[in-house]
Write a structure and sequence with these properties.
Alpha-Beta Plaits, 5-stranded mixed β-sheet, two-stranded antiparallel ribbon, 8% strand
Length: 492
C-alpha cells in the first residue's frame, strides 16, 4: 500500500513540477500562483514526512525528523519571501530573514546525512568532506567568482558567497550519498536511496543555476523556472520517506578489487582536480613544483592501495569470525543451534522487558535407537539432518530451534509471535505432522515421529532450567500416551 502511495505522490510531484515550469516559462516573472506553488511543494512534502516520522520506530525516525525540519525551514523561507511581494508590497532583499531559514535548511539536511553515517566512520567522512569543500572553494573562487567579480564591481560578493553555500552543501549531500552506496550502505532500501540522490541533485542543480544565472548574470526572468528544481527536490524527499516504509533494507553484494579502488578514490576527487589545474593551467618548468605534484600523486596512490589491501584483509577477518561464530553457536551435524546457545537465547527471552510469555517445545524421535542400531550411525545422522531440515521450514523471527543432543530437539517461541495458545497448539501439531512423514534416506525409507512436551513461562516455571525440565517431563507424558503427539506440562 505504501509503495502505491509513493508512486502516486511521485506522479503528482512530476505533474506539479511540469505545471509550475509551464507557468513560469509562459509568464517569465513571478505571479501569485507561482508563489503559492513554491510554498505548497515543501508544505505537502512536510505533511508526508510527518506521517513517515510517526510510522518509523527504529533508527530512521531521527533521520526523517531532521528531513522534516529542513522541509519546514524551506516552507518558512518561501512564506517569508512571498510575503515581501504580496503582503508588504516591497522587493525582497538579496540577503534577509528568508536566507536564515534557507541556510538552516541546507545545514540540517547535511546534519541528517552526516548523522546517518556509521559511528566509526564519522571522522573519516568529515575529513573527506573538508577536502572536497576546500578544493571546490578554491576552484570556484579562481575560475568563477574572481574573474566575474573583477570585471563587474557592481556584483555583491557577500550575496554570491552566501548563495555559494547552497550548492556546496547540496554537493556534500550527493558526496555522502555516493560514499554510502560505495561503502555498501544498506540500512535503507534502494528505492529510498535513489529518491534521496535525485532530490539532492535537484537541489544542487537549482542552487548552482541560481548563483550563475541570477546572482552573476542577472537573468531574473529565469528565476521562477529555477524554482522548479527545488520543488522537485522537496517531492523527492517525501517520496523517499514513503519508500523507506515499504522497502526492505538491501544486502551488500560482493565487491571486487576495482570496486574498492573506485570507492577509496572518490574522496580525493577534489585533490585530483587541484593537481590537474596546477598541471594544465599553471604550466611551469620548475622542477620543485613537478616533483611536489608527482610526490602527492604517489602518496595518493599508496594511500588508496593501502586502504584497498586493508579492506580485503578485513573482509577475510570478518568471514573467519562469522565462520568461528557459526561453529561456536551451531550444532555441527544439523546446523541448528547447539544447547549452550539455545539456553542463552532462552534466558534472554525470559529476562526480556515485561516478562513476555514464552513456550518451549521439547521433543525426541520415537524409535530412534532401533533405527540407529539396525541401520547404522550414518543413517541415524542422515535422519537427524533431515529432521533439522524439515524443522527449518517452520523457522520465523523470534523462534529459536536447537538440537540439544542425541535425538533431542527444542523450540523456544514467544507467545506474542503466535498470538494465542490455539496457535501454539497448531504449531505443535505442525511439528508432529511434519516430522512423522516418511524419510527417504539413500536406499532405505524410514518412519519415525516426535513426542513433544510443552511448557510455558511463567505459568509452569520461572527460570530457564526449570522450564526445560518441565518441558522434558511433558515430553515423557506424550510418550506414555503412545508417542506421535504432544502434551502440555500439568505440574507435579
Amino acid at each position: 500500500m505504501r509503495s502505491i502511495h509513493s508512486s502516486r505522490l511521485l506522479i503528482f510531484g512530476l505533474l506539479f513540477v511540469f505545471v509550475q515550469a509551464a507557468v513560469s516559462l509562459g509568464y517569465g516573472q513571478y505571479i501569485l500562483p507561482l508563489y503559492l506553488m513554491d510554498i505548497l511543494a515543501p508544505a505537502i512534502s512536510l505533511g508526508v514526512v510527518i506521517q513517515v516520522i510517526r510510522a518509523h520506530t527504529g533508527p530512521q525516525k531521527g533521520f526523517w525528523l531532521l528531513i522534516g525540519t529542513a522541509l519546514f525551514c524551506e516552507m518558512t523561507a518561501q512564506l517569508i519571501w512571498g510575503s515581501y511581494e504580496w503582503i508588504w508590497q516591497t522587493e525582497a532583499p538579496d540577503i534577509g530573514i528568508a536566507d536564515i531559514f534557507w541556510v538552516s535548511q541546507s545545514l540540517i539536511y547535511l546534519v541528517a546525512f552526516y548523522g546517518w553515517v556509521r559511528s566509526g566512520e564519522k571522522n573519516r567522512y568529515l575529513l573527506d568532506s573538508m577536502i572536497l569543500v576546500v578544493s571546490l572553494a578554491v576552484v570556484s573562487w579562481e575560475f568563477l567568482i574572481k574573474p566575474i567579480y573583477q570585471g563587474d564591481e557592481n556584483l555583491d560578493l557577500i550575496t554570491i558567497s552566501v548563495d555559494l553555500i547552497y550548492p556546496i552543501t547540496s554537493l556534500l549531500m550527493v558526496f555522502i550519498l555516493t560514499c554510502w552506496l560505495l561503502n555498501g550502505e544498506r540500512r535503507m532500501s534502494r528505492g529510498t536511496m535513489r529518491m534521496l540522490a535525485i532530490g539532492c541533485l535537484s537541489y544542487m542543480s537549482g542552487d548552482t543555476l541560481y548563483m550563475l544565472l541570477i546572482d552573476i548574470h542577472s537573468l531574473d526572468s529565469l528565476e521562477p523556472w529555477i524554482d522548479t528544481f527545488w520543488t522537485g527536490a522537496a517531492f523527492c524527499m517525501a517520496v523517499a520517506g514513503l519508500r523507506s516504509l515499504s522497502g526492505k533494507p538491501g544486502t551488500a553484494g560482493a565487491e571486487g578489487r576495482v570496486g574498492r579502488v573506485i570507492r577509496f578514490s572518490v574522496p580525493y576527487i577534489g585533490l585530483l582536480l587541484l593537481i590537474g589545474i596546477l598541471v594544465f593551467y599553471r604550466l611551469t618548468t620548475d622542477v620543485f613544483v613537478w616533483g611536489l605534484t608527482l610526490t602527492v600523486l604517489l602518496v595518493l596512490v599508496r594511500q588508496i592501495h593501502f586502504l584497498t589491501e586493508r579492506e580485503m584483509l578485513n573482509d577475510k577477518l570478518r568471514q573467519s569470525l562469522r565462520r568461528l561464530e557459526r561453529i561456536a553457536s551451531c550444532d555441527s551435524l544439523t546446523g541448528l543451534l547447539n544447547r549452550r546457545v539455545f539456553e542463552l537465547e532462552l534466558e534472554g527471552k525470559l529476562s526480556g522487558p515485561g516478562q513476555e510469555p514464552v513456550a518451549v517445545l521439547y521433543f525426541d524421535l520415537d524409535k530412534f535407537k532401533p533405527i540407529n542400531d539396525n541401520h547404522g550411525h550414518r543413517t541415524g545422522d542422515l535422519l537427524l539432518q533431515a529432521v533439522a531440515e524439515r524443522l527449518s521450514s517452520l523457522q520465523k523471527d523470534g523462534i529459536s530451534m536447537a538440537r540439544l543432543g542425541g535425538d533431542e530437539f527444542a523450540i523456544a517461541v514467544p507467545l506474542s509471535s503466535l498470538g494465542s495458545l490455539e496457535r501454539l497448539q497448531e504449531l505443535s501439531e505442525a511439528v508432529v505432522q511434519l516430522l512423522s512423514k516418511p524419510y527417504r534416506l539413500e536406499e532405505v525409507t524410514l518412519r519415525t515421529s516426535p513426542s513433544v512436551g510443552i511448557a510455558l513461562y511463567p505459568q509452569d516455571a520461572r527460570t530457564m532450567p526449570d522450564l526445560l525440565d518441565a518441558a522434558d517431563q511433558a515430553m515423557y507424558e506424550a510418550k506414555r500416551r503412545g508417542g506421535r503427539g504432544f502434551a502440555f506440562y500439568r505440574g507435579g
